[in-house]
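Curious: can you check?
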Amino acid sequence: MRSLNLHAALIFLTLVSSELTKVSAIRCYDCSDSNPHCRDPFPHKKDYSVLTRDCAHGCIKQTRHEKTTQHIERGCADEDRDQCFWDEPKSGENLHVCYCTTTLCNTGTRPRSRSTYSLVWTAASVLVARLFI
């Protein structure tokens, strides 16, 4: 009976952890460097709620490096991705693009994927299971 309770607890925690990582809408920063609060270094520790919006997929931060300037845009991505990369469009400028899928993740730091949170929940599940053994 105790083994059955342990398995039930593990299944429950696994289901809860998978549901916690699913997000129907993600809140993202939505601004460009024409707004001083959107420039780097990004002052995300303050409450600039006017600079956020709900997005269906993930967030994106694009930094366009031209000869002597850089332009930053933060907003909603059109797909679910956790990835950063450099691109060189035809215009010769360098473009650094970061996609992320957690709330307010497009500050400029490396994105943390949902799988990281799943790993934390799985580890917590194992620790809880050990309490029942």
